[in-house]
Specification:
Blueprint: H1 2-20, E1 25-36, E2 42-45, E3 48-53, E4 56-60, E5 63-77, E6 83-93, E7 99-110, H2 114-118, E8 123-124, E9 131-141, E10 154-163, E11 172-182
Antiparallel strand pairs: 1-4, 1-11, 2-3, 3-5, 4-5, 5-6, 6-7, 7-9, 8-10, 9-10, 10-11
Length: 183
C-alpha cells in the first residue's frame, strides 16, 4: 500500500511538471479600435453606467470591418480594490457586407494617475501609465462563411491605448490587439 502511494505521488509530480512546461500557443489575429465619446453616457445608479458608442474598426487579418454601434454597461468598484468592469455588445459590418456581432468584457485596474488622465483626455495604457492591468475577453458570432472561424474562438484583447473624451465628440479610443489560442 505504501509503495502504491509513493508511485502515485511520483506520477502526480511528473504530471504537474509536464503540464507546467507545456507551451501556451497563441496567435495575433487582428485589432479592435473603438471610438469612444461620452455624448450618450449616463449614470444609472450608484456606480453603474451605460453608454452608446459608434465608430471604429475591427481588423481580422487584412480585412477591416466598421463598428456601427456598441452598447456599454459598466461599473466602478471602490472596494476592495479600485476596479472598473465593462461589458459591451457591438455590431460590425465587414468589407464583404457580412455582419459580425461581438460581445466583450473588460476589467481595468487603475493606478493613482488614472482619473486625472482620463478626465484630461491623456493616453492611458497598462502597466504603469494610468492602469496597472487591462485585458479583455471578446466573443464573436457570424453567419458568414468567410469569417465563420470567429465562432470557434474566445479572443484575448491585449490593451494598447485608452483615451478619454471629455468633449463627447467620439475622440476617445479603446484599442487592443486580438489573440486566439491554439492547441
Amino acid at each position: 500500500m505504501l509503495k502504491a502511494k509513493i508511485i502515485y505521488a511520483i506520477f502526480l509530480i511528473f504530471f504537474s511538471i509536464s503540464n507546467l512546461s507545456a507551451e501556451l500557443n497563441y496567435k495575433k489575429v487582428g485589432q479592435w479600435d473603438l471610438n469612444m465619446g461620452r455624448a450618450n453616457f449616463a449614470m444609472t445608479s450608484g456606480s453603474w453606467w451605460v453608454d452608446v458608442m459608434q465608430g471604429g474598426t475591427l481588423s481580422l487579418g487584412k480585412d477591416k470591418g466598421e463598428i456601427h454601434t456598441c452598447i456599454e454597461d459598466g461599473y466602478t468598484y471602490n472596494e476592495p480594490r479600485n476596479l472598473i468592469w465593462v461589458e459591451l455588445e457591438c455590431s460590425i459590418t465587414m468589407p464583404d457586407k457580412s455582419k459580425i456581432y461581438l460581445e466583450y468584457s473588460s476589467k481595468l485596474t487603475p493606478d493613482e494617475t488614472f482619473w486625472d488622465k482620463i478626465t484630461s483626455d491623456k493616453s492611458i495604457s497598462a502597466p504603469n501609465n494610468g492602469l496597472k492591468y487591462w485585458f479583455a475577453e471578446f466573443k464573436m458570432k457570424t453567419t458568414s462563411e468567410k469569417y465563420s472561424w470567429v465562432n470557434e474562438h474566445i479572443f484575448l484583447g491585449k490593451s494598447i491605448e485608452l483615451l478619454g473624451d471629455t468633449s463627447g465628440q467620439g475622440k476617445g479610443r479603446a484599442f487592443y490587439d486580438l489573440y486566439i489560442f491554439e492547441n
